[in-house]
Design goal:
Length: 670
């Protein structure tokens, strides 16, 4: 690193600031020489570090030449995530020092040799205190860069969004009551409580209040459009709005976050460094929004440069909050590491957040499905905190964890189903326990996005064999006793068969291992048929004993079929990931069908994505036309014919699973 003359670089920098400023004071020359006196030229080689995340923000760097990369340090220093790269002349690095946090938000590394101007934040603060007009013009350029980085981050974020905005679904959220004609709080009280306006004094608040006009929007109504230059500060008074973003490559709008905290600035334009709205804002609940007209404030801001500087600092704070939220959402969606995203978000504010704040415990509580509920209780409580920072962080956590909350509610529903089954009264018949189970899963699957196709292929009468490709379970659905309720089989039973026939049918399940107490207690109480597979405990038996066991299975299963009860089984005998499904088929299901009089139909159901986290996918089931074994396999005892049939059916089934995957993907985008 080398220290040289700063004269030429400083002149270039000042010329760039003056050329881009829309709020430059034309009534008098600004003291650029005082700004130049604070600049020091610094050179960094490739891989040189300008700032380190969370270190005290003592310096601001303006990169005249070179390329820098912004990184977030994740999980105790074991991983760095790239969140942007810039090579534009005069890229600002370390601007978080202008905020009260005074900590660097990212680690910034030179990917090419860099020539920079370095300023001490303390010296800049002292200069801007004496020369607020200079501070406004200087920070105007920083703000433009902040919103450019925010747009870049949002574009990266939308690449990992599940779906474009679906307003019909957003407006039908369950569990929320509409509050019509709710009176907004008194304006000054609202501004005092607002995290954006809170640092301003009473006189400044009244200046803003004097430029307010109230607007009412019905849910579904647009408030501002992305890219619109309509000037103003838009402050939410009542209701809820959604921020949506359309990246340059598409016209689709992707959901960024929702805002319901009264006093939140939900849109702004026509201010220093902010020419147009960076996102669209739509009312998702009837709401009242106060628009503070910058055209009415313009003269006041020019006459009172201290107020203008205070406003620019607050806009810088707002931009940093949006950028922080976008980065946290990126971590959450890109890596499905919600706990890590929340931890990173809170760590960036830990020096301002009270050491007694319950929010500090949230990342730890999110580490286990058993304590996630406590985390949400804390977040909900802190969303009503009297501390503006706690409220803001809690609202960001709620937004990041919205799908995790739905996943948690699904997990809790699974726990309730299991408990209801294993604690059912002994005198309750197994058929009634299965009905209880189906009702519980129908409630659970209300939290899951799913699609079913081909229900017209379901036979009019029960007593048929339903086969499906069996998928693995995601670890997030593991109950405290280490038991995993298979989602695909329960979906077929509860959401397809029970709804059509009023009964979820009998499943063929594997015998539990000796250590699987939860598995055994559950399936025993449901009265399903257990068979031995390679995943069961090994048993020692002769060929005759094996044949006897098979005959008993055929007789038991045949009895259910002849009695008009559907049978559900997977021909694979084990589970696979959707991408590898189905596995090799075994002949048992088809030999069973051939042994029963009258011969039942085989109804194939292809399922997809039940092996994924339910909060980030759409599950799908495709019901295909039924067939009889006698129509495709005249002699079920001809081993070669049976083997060829199973190989062909597996190939066909693979195409059906791909069809289910495409159906799920299409539903995700609808």
């Amino acid at each position: 690193m080398d220290v040289t003359s700063v004269t030429n670089a400083t002149r270039e920098c000042i010329a760039s600031i003056r050329a881009r400023s829309a709020w430059l004071d034309t009534d008098g020359e600004l003291p650029w020489d005082r700004l130049a006196a604070l600049a020091e030229e610094r050179r960094f080689e490739a891989d040189g570090v300008l700032t380190r995340q969370f270190a005290p923000a003592r310096h601001l760097f303006l990169v005249a030449e070179g390329t820098v990369r912004f990184q977030l340090r994740l999980e105790e220093g074991n991983e760095d995530l790239d969140v942007g790269e810039r090579s534009t002349p005069w890229t600002a690095v370390g601007w978080s020092g202008f905020r009260d946090l005074r900590r660097y938000a990212t680690t910034v590394v030179c990917t090419r040799a860099c020539r920079t101007l370095r300023f001490e934040h303390a010296a800049l603060a002292a200069l801007f205190e004496e020369e607020p007009r200079l501070g406004v013009v200087f920070l105007e350029g920083i703000l433009r860069q902040c919103f450019e980085r925010l747009a870049d981050m949002r574009a990266r974020l939308t690449a990992y969004s599940q779906t474009p905005v679906n307003f019909a679904r957003a407006l039908q959220d369950e569990g929320e009551e509409e509050a019509y004609n709710r009176a907004p709080p008194p304006l000054i009280e609202l501004l005092r409580r607002s995290a954006f306006f809170a640092p301003l004094d009473e006189e400044q608040l009244r200046l803003f209040a004097g430029a307010v006009e109230s607007r009412y929007f019905c849910r579904g109504e647009p408030i501002v459009e992305q890219g619109s230059p309509e000037s103003g500060l838009w402050v939410l008074a009542t209701g809820r709005v959604a921020l949506n973003y359309s990246p340059p490559s598409t016209t689709d709008a992707f959901a960024l976050r929702t805002i319901s905290e009264p006093g939140s600035v939900v849109a702004l334009a026509g201010l220093p460094g902010v020419d147009a709205h960076g996102a669209s804002v739509v009312a998702t609940r009837d709401c009242t929004v106060y628009r503070i007209g910058t055209e009415r404030l313009g003269a006041v801001l020019r006459d009172d440069p201290r107020l203008a500087l205070a406003l620019v600092r607050r806009v810088l704070w707002l931009a940093s909050m949006h950028l922080r939220a976008a980065r946290a959402l990126f971590i959450s969606r890109r890596f499905e590491k919600e706990r890590l995203a929340v931890s990173n978000l809170l760590e960036q504010s830990c020096t301002q957040l009270s050491v007694h704040s319950p929010l500090h415990t949230v990342p730890h509580l999110l580490g286990s499905p058993l304590t996630v509920g406590e985390a949400f209780a804390i977040i909900e409580r802190m969303a009503g905190s009297g501390d503006a920072l706690e409220r803001s962080l809690a609202e960001l956590c709620q937004e990041m964890l919205r799908d995790v909350k739905r996943e948690h509610e699904f997990f809790e529903a699974l726990r309730r189903v299991y408990h209801a089954v294993v604690t059912a009264p002994e005198e309750m018949p197994a058929r009634d326990v299965r009905k209880l189970c189906s009702r519980g899963f129908q409630q659970a699957f209300r939290r899951v996005r799913y699609v079913v196709e081909g229900e017209e292929h379901l036979p009019p009468a029960p007593g048929q064999i339903f086969i499906f490709n069996h998928l693995k379970n995601h670890e997030h659905n593991t109950l405290p006793n280490n038991f995993q309720l298979t989602l695909d089989s329960h979906f077929v039973s509860a959401m397809i068969l029970d709804r059509r026939y009023g009964d979820g049918g009998i499943r063929v399940v594997r015998h539990s291992r000796g250590s699987e107490y939860g598995h055994q207690a559950y399936y025993d109480r449901l009265g399903h048929i257990a068979v031995y597979t390679h995943e069961s405990d090994r048993i020692q038996e002769t060929p005759e004993q094996r044949q006897t066991r098979q005959n008993e299975f055929f007789e038991t299963a045949g009895g259910y079929l002849r009695g008009g009860t559907n049978l559900i089984l997977s021909p694979e005998g084990t589970s696979y990931w959707t991408e590898d499904s189905p596995g090799p088929f075994k002949p048992g299901a088809f030999r069973l069908a051939a042994s029963v009089e009258p011969e039942p139909l085989i109804v194939p159901i292809a399922v997809a994505h039940f092996d994924r986290r339910i909060h980030s996918t759409v599950c799908a089931a495709v019901i295909k036309p039924p067939f009889r074994v006698s129509d495709v396999l005249p002699d079920p005892h001809d081993r070669e014919r049976v083997r060829a049939f199973l190989v062909d059916l597996r190939k066909t089934y693979h195409g059906w699973v791909e069809e289910a995957r495409r159906l799920a993907d299409a539903a995700a985008k609808s």
